[in-house]
Structures are given as structure tokens and as C-alpha cells.
Amino acid sequence: MPNLNSAFSQIGRGFAAFLAPPAPDVIRFTVGQPDFDTPTPVVDAAISSLKRGETTYTRSQGSETLCQAVSEHLSKFDIDVDGNDVVIAPGCKQALLYSMMAVIEPGDEVLLLAPAWPSYDGMVKLLGGVPIHVPVHRPDYHPDIEALRNAVTLKTKAIIINSPNNPTGAVYTSSEIKQIVDLAVDSDLWILDDMIYSTLVWEGHSYTSPNSFDGGAERTLTIGGWSKGWAMTGWRLGWAAGPSEAMEAVKTCQASSATHVATFLMPAAEVALTLDKEISAMGDSFAERRLLFHEGVDSLPGVAAPMPEGAFYILADVSGTGMDDIEFATRALHEAKVQVIPGSLMIGGDNLVRMSYATSLEDLEEGIRRLRTWLNEII
Questions:
Q1: 88 phi and psi, to 5 degrees?
Q2: Residue 130's beta-bridge partner residues?
Q3: What kind and span of H or E run contains 265?
Q4: Where are the beta strands (DSSP E) in 74-129?
Q5: Where would I find the H helices in 203-360?
Q6: How confident is the model at residue 19 (pLDDT cuts 50, 70, 90)?
């Protein structure tokens, strides 16, 4: 058999092994998706589009009306981008990959704030780039700006930011984003801004775009989508937006691969962007769960966790239990019947476990009860 691409021998599959459904009696704190149904008006719009026969090829970057709707949505976050500089992709991950393809060449270094979502590392390596993992501050998981500056070399091409953050739950301050923009301007770097959790921020915190600051808009590709904020994970709809020259490259990536997202989904995506009431209700529910879950996790024997500021994750330090993250996750699954994700699947995540509170209050309470009982028995 001919040889495979050697890059794949260096790339893992992130959290995939821990996202498979466990036995029915296991409480899952692993899956990063809303436990809500997709809003009914969105489903109805997709069905209506199907019934109208909107199943043929269409404009590759996405319909003009949907691209314009995304442009108007982004304007709420101080992101001024023309609808023609928006591409609708088959998921936020695909939009992120297109964006990387547009700006990264083999040998380029890309700064990641560690611990970072594993797919960033894999995508950079797929393109022949070199991921550089720069540890964040502990225990709040906010960027270490000085460490980022020290990590820049002549080979550095881009920095990827994700705020609100998966896996940490941190929301970077306006000052931190400005300092990242200043660093990017000084070193002539691209910024890939993954804003997928931008609608999921809690009291006292808000998403800040690099476009808000001088020099930011000309070097920032903004990537987002419908999965998290609109409970549409399986719809696979995302967007990329940015400077015209970069977006022409992104359009070429899409036209040369996926062609376009499913035609009948585009009207539904437009409808979703109008549903402020439904999205606010989801956010209120997650905000309530955040308080309950953090109180429970932070009170577990040997476990410490900062209050999450956005998204729907807690990244807890379990070193006080006498176990590393792999042992903790393995024993929690088999002995407590609770599934969590070990942080060492990410560079910089040793002795940490990621827990999602995107599940029912009943499961949150029962999972905490099980973990507390288990830890009290073994510590």
C-alpha cells in the first residue's frame, strides 16, 4: 500500500474518545452542546425551504441574504464587515480550517493559549504549521501577555484566541484583547478569533472582538457559528468573516472543497439570528446552572475550580485528590459512574479535568453527589 500523509502520525483526535455515549447509568459531564431542542421557528424554516424545493446548487459562499444577516449580527459586537466578506461554512470548525488555510504556510508558527481546544493543534499540523502552546495564567486561565510576547519568533504567523473559552470558561477582558491586538500589530500577525461562545457570557463579563481596537480589523478573521448559542450542533453551520483579501482566499477554499452548505438550511440560519428571546432564555438557564455546578465542583474533596465566566465549562484542578487527571477521569467513570474529560488530552492540561454543565439540573446535582460520595470514600 502507498504511504499515507506522515502528518497524521502526529495528530490526535482530541476529546473524541470521551464523547462517545457511555452506559445508560452514567452521568455525562463531557459533551459541549446545549441540551435544548433547536428553536421551532428554525426547524420550520428549514422544512419550508425543503418543501419549496430549495435543494439545488447555490452561491458558494452562502446566500446574499444570509451573509448580510451575519454581517448585521456581527455589528452588534463592534465588527464592521461587509456581507460580501462573509463565508457560510459547514460548521465553525470548517470555517476555522478555511481561515487557517488562507493565512498559514508550512513552517509557520501559530500561538495557542494553553490549554487550548485540541482541534486547533491538529488543524495547524494538518497544514504543516507549528503550534506553539503558551500557558495561560492560573488559576483564572486568562492570557499571559508577557509569555505571548516572549513566544513570538520570526516564524510566528498567527495567534488563535477563543473567548469565551473552551475548555477553561474564561472570558478575556477588553484590556487583554487590546494587548493581544497590540502584539499582533507590533509583530505583524494574523488573529484568528473563534467567537463560537460569544452569546454565552455571564454577569460582569462580555465578549470583546479584536476589531474593536486600532489595527485589529485589518488582521482579524472572525469565526463563529450557530452550534452553541442556538442549539444547532448537528446542523453544521458556521461563518468566517474578515478583510476582503483574506476572505477571497476563504471563498476559494470553500469552492474547492465543500462547494457550499446545504441550500435549504440557509433560510433557517437567517431565522435563527432573529431569535433574541429564545437565545436569551437558553443563556439564563446556563447562568443558573453555572452557579449551582461551580458551588458543587469547587466543594468536592481535593478539587478546585475558578468560577467560569462564559461558555458552559468548568476546568477543575484535581491534583489535591492525589490523582492525576487520567486516573481521576478513569476512576470517576468506573467507580462513580460520572464521565469527565481529562485535561492532559490538551498540552498544558495536566491534572485538570473539563466538565460541561450543558445538561439538566437534575443530572448536575446527581453527578456532584456521586463524585462527592466517591471521593469521600477514597481520600
A1: -90, 120
A2: 109
A3: none
A4: 86-89, 109-114
A5: 244-255, 266-272, 276-298, 325-331
A6: confident
Q: How far is C-alpha 102 from the chain's CA centre?
A: 20
Q: At what angle do helices 92-103 and 244-255 cross, to 10 degrees?
A: 120
CATH superfamily of 6-38+277-378: Aspartate Aminotransferase, domain 1 (3.90.1150.10)
Average pLDDT score over residue span 119-147: 97
What was the pLDDT predicted at 48?
A: 98
What are the extents of the domains in the chain? 6-38+277-378, 40-275
Residue 296 and residue 51: Cα distance in Å, rounded? Answer: 48
Q: Which amino acid is at 316?
A: A
How many residues are present in the chain? Answer: 379
Render pLDDT for 241-259 as a digit per residue (tens, 0 to 9): 999 999 999 999 999 999 9
pLDDT of residue 36: 94
Structure-model confidence comparison of residues 20 and 244, the more confident one = 244
Q: Is it the case that residue 96 has pLDDT exceeding 80?
A: yes
Q: What angle do CA 297, 300, 302 make, to 5 degrees?
A: 120
**Pairing of the two strands 86-89 and 27-28:** unpaired
At 8, which amino acid appears?
A: F
* Mean residue pLDDT across the chain: 96
Q: Return the ∠ at Cα 259 (arms to 253 and 263), rounded to 5°.
A: 135
Structurally, at CATH architecture level, domain 40-275 sits in: 3-Layer(aba) Sandwich (3.40)
Rounded (to 5) percent helix, strand, coil in the chain:
45, 15, 40
In the chain, beta strands by DSSP E: 27-28, 86-89, 109-114, 130-135, 156-162, 190-194, 220-225, 238-241, 313-317, 338-339, 341-342, 352-356
With b for 16 or more beta-carbon neighbours within 10 A and e for fewer, the 314-330 pattern comes to bbbbbeebebbbeebbe
**Residue-level pLDDT at 379:** 87
DSSP 196-212: TTTT-B-TT-----GGG
